[in-house]
Amino acid sequence: MRLNVVTTPEDIQPYLRDESSWTGAAESVSFPQSEDEIREALRVYSQKGAPITIQGARTGITGAAVPVGGHVINLSRFSRALGMRWDDADNRFLLTVQPGMLFSQVQKGLADKEFNTQGWSRESLSAYRRFCAEGRWSFAADITETSASIGGMVSTNASGAKSYLYGPMRAHVVGLRLLLADGRAVTLRRGEQFAQGGFFRLRLEDGTAVEGRLPSYRMPAVKNASGYYIKPDMDLLDLFIGSEGTLAVVTEITLALSPTPARSIGLLAFFGDMPGALKYVQALKRLQGTQKPAAIEYFDRACLDMIRGEQLEARSHKDLPLLPSAEAVYVEFHQPTQADADTRLRQVRLLLQENGGKPAETWLAATPQDLEKLIGFRHAVPESINHIIAERKRGTPMLTKLGTDMAVPDDKLAWVLNLYAESLGTLGLEGLKFGHIGDNHLHVNILPATAEDYRRGKALIQEWARQVIAAGGTVSAEHGIGKLKTAQLLDMYGREAVKEMRALKRCFDPLGLLNPGNMFVSEESG
Amino acid sequence: MSMEIVVCVKQVPASTRVKLNATTNTIIREGIEMMLNPFDAYALEEALRVKAGAGGRVTVISMGIPSAAELLRYALALGADRAVLLSDKRFAGADTLATAYSLAAAVRKLGACDLILCGRQAVDGDTAQVGPSLAQKLGIPHLTAVSRLELSSQRRVLCEKMTDEGYQEIELGLPALLTVVKEINTPRFPNLEDYLRTLDAAVEIWSADDLEVDHARIGYDGSATWVMSTTATERRKNGKEILGPPQEAAELILGTLRQMGWQPASEGRRE
Amino acid sequence: MSEIRIVADKCTGCRQCLPACPYGAISMRAKKAFISADCVFCGACVPVCRFEAIELFTEAPAQEGAPASSGIWIFAEQSDGKVKPVVLELLGEARALARKKTNKITAIWLGPREPEQFRALIAQGADEVIAVADPRLAQRDELLYPQVLTRLVETYRPEIFLFGATGFGRSIAPRTASALDTGLTADCTRLDIDPQSGLLLQTRPAFGGNLLATILCRTRRPQMATVRPKVMRALPADFSRQGSVRLENLDISGLAGLEIKSARANKADSPGLDSAEIVVGVGRGIGSARQIALYRRLAAALGAGLAATRAVVDLGWLEYPHQVGQTGVTIAPKVYLAFGISGSVQHMAGLAESTHLIAVNKDENAPIFAAADERVRADCNEVAAALLKQISGESARE
User: Fold this and answer.
1) Which of C204, A141, A128, A268 is nearest to B225 (CA)?
2) Domain spans of chain A?
3) Alpha carbon A499 to its chain's center
4) Do B225 and C207 touch (CB under 8 A)?
5) Could you say which of C15, C289, C363 has the minimum Cβ distance to residue A315?
6) What single DSSP character describes residue C266?
7) Of A172-176, A433-437, B153-157, C292-296, where does mean pLDDT reach its minimum?
8) Has residue C154 been placed in a domain?
9) What ipTM was predicted for this assembly?
10) Class of the CATH domain delimited by A264-470
11) Partners of B6 in the beta sheet?
């Protein structure tokens, strides 16, 4: 076993950043390819007492993977699929992978029915043969940035458009193998170990245990990626999902697969104003059970005008017809048969008619190729925004994008949309609103043109956070806290709760070595 | 000027990916999902635009297996007026010659026809042969790789055509057959209203008996060419890995280029 | 008639044939394979069955033997009175074929009378040039040319007729073949003579380049094929070669032609792919249309051509003349720098095997790495920017 480590500044340089605006510092980066090598790295570098940052694919945007000195354990070479199993109880396949494997690689392996099965057990190979022989299986967790690692998805409890129906990452993880900072390990399956009345005792594989009190805060009843997932009698597996690498290193993840839906259809409907679009959205949200959409997404007029402008310049998006200048709502359905899909379409036509929509001007994507085009459009929005910021940055280097990731309870959706629109208007700031409106989770991107804009935009976002928290919402619905939003987490839960979170971390990582700075600052500097 | 427009479309596999069964050394075609040949979507879109401008009717025609009817219904949802599927075991195994012969018989049966639009080529065969071959069988002029078209006066069409060297402007009298390239337009999405309206629309199915054809000239038996064998292609090289951060990679790449004889522009000027 | 059947006694119900059918025509009934009416007799299932339980009968229909014919014809496509390079490649190939089966090689020229070009054709391998030198043929006309070629074929009855698979060739060859009711194989990358039958073996990529199919034209003549440019090799010119030139007296006044109103060359920023020794290729992995400017500058700095994958062109980031692949141009530069290109077989089909391929891609599983001579797993835009910086820095230092 030869742990691959780099120590020269040029070699380390690429690993000091993720997709946030932060650059960190580190003295060395290792690339383990086995669990033993990870354990070795933990052993060697914990002795130095310096921080250890665990990295996946570094696609996060909150600085969670950005090191703050010390050592980096980069898991990008620890990226194989390890095995498969048929789960009789729930009639599905389970796939076990190493954390460095990318989401896109899992999707591709499933779609192509092709995995590197070298070293797989007999049981896994038998399940694999069955998987190859019949049916089509997918990994139903959804994220926008498909080059993220599975480990990263676990650490932030990642979600995306289709999480509206399928749930966030948490809903698809049935097992984790965990390595604590001191090298002790446990393979934990869902349903095996539980907390009781806020007290937990996690039994490890060497017979020892980690025990302590769970924080006593209540999570808001919204889509949430802020802070630890806590419930008094929770399945301990859930403690680690969304823990942003602060409790343990995840070395194996067992994912639940689901049958690929037979028929997927998407509809892009256009509205003259936001209230009209919202009425339609509320109607769509009332569809439940087998009628529930897979995703409901919203794009305000500014978003469409931006892409439309690019189309008119004829520089890109040639595969898409010219977008109108309008508010847009995208809804997607996954149905078992064509007949079911057609029934959904009839329902949507009715909903459109009843809510000021125009079925004759609603784009229907009924083929995989057409669905791809609409995905292209949806991803183009944040990309184009990034580009505009990059251009403005050239004139005013201190400018960065100001983006939000807040979600509110159902009954506050109209309120928050109005809050955003009115306050931006009052302050004369340019902003775009888009996102997972089905989960009441919208991203607002403020595009500052001047330093003054930037200052006011930042202050506005803080004000929004205050109001959203007071309304029972969350400051981070999907991106996580990382190092960039620790102040917001503090605002959201309060000093006492964050103290409890630190205490929880100390149970697993008494020396505070793993990913310090994620979620909360360590006490010494805090 | 009301136009009778015929669009020839083909149902092709959505994925042309192929895997080689390592044990039997035979080809396993992955994914039996079918789709409308991408180029044909552009042809259909252009037909709908011509109809919108000049008035008339768009008939979509395809030769294929029964499930291709779904594709034709989709064309009706986009705005075509009539859909005809040539489906018969006896059409199967046709090469482009036999296909053109059969399609020609079908077009003749459709009656008056001013303009035939086809996609430039089908992404499974990639031959681009059926269009010109069909025009020959019908005895009408054709143009390939049309990137823009405009009806001029009285049964003439002005076309911009992509050539190997650039573009040409050519005027043709109708009836004529044009094969189109993707530059010509951006295909629309069907809208929900039209899609639901055409859910139960009829697609006419014609068998070999419905056409005036010599059965010896259709299908496998009517083909002039025959596939003797197929193998999978594989390009494998034992490449060298260039590691390191971008600056280093760029240095190494420049090194390779120099080795292969590249010089920066200014160096060449040194006497 | 074609027929296919499952031999029930041999079928074990192993289901291996189901995914092999491109048309989904095989299902299970009563634990045995069942082939539905969707079957088109492509035969893909037959070799997959280990138990030989699938029987496909594709007897050639009873036909008379092929009509008498002889000679290999090469369509000498000209542009502005100059023969196109692919014609010379075809002549080289024809000479190789003639070594396996003696055949006179004739170049067919439609266009202005160009004695120097005729001499060049002979020097490059033609035994004979037949030229129709009517002023109406000066401009390539896809309506007029096939009629002229058809008449020539009917007069002289060649055994084989080859065309370069240029845009023009791919238009007139099928029209001509259709008029002659003979077989045509498009985009061949290999030609050979079958030793037993003497037939032309025509090999071409199919299924987006994933498969190589070898095709025969058994009983119709001439056996026609279009051949990919830059795949065959021209012979060095040998001006000592002897050959004849026949100016064909053909009255084409009654034949219809096209009204070509104007022509224009590709825009100034042409891709420069034709003769470039280095080509920079961009794929979807570069992220967005805005990155194209970077690659234009890089290509300019390198004096390289700029190529694109189909995905990039479909999205409108670059125009079609830049497209390299199964659809699009074939290139054979010394070096190909592929940025953000996954390496689909569709795209690779447009790249010569001999080209030194340097692939830069973030995804370590990109198929292009298997075909690359040098693999760079990195962010393609970062590498491109670094490369540009270094080149500009070097030039600046001079």
Assistant:
1) C204
2) 5-74, 81-259, 264-470
3) 25
4) no
5) C289
6) P
7) B153-157
8) yes
9) 0.89
10) alpha beta
11) B59, B116
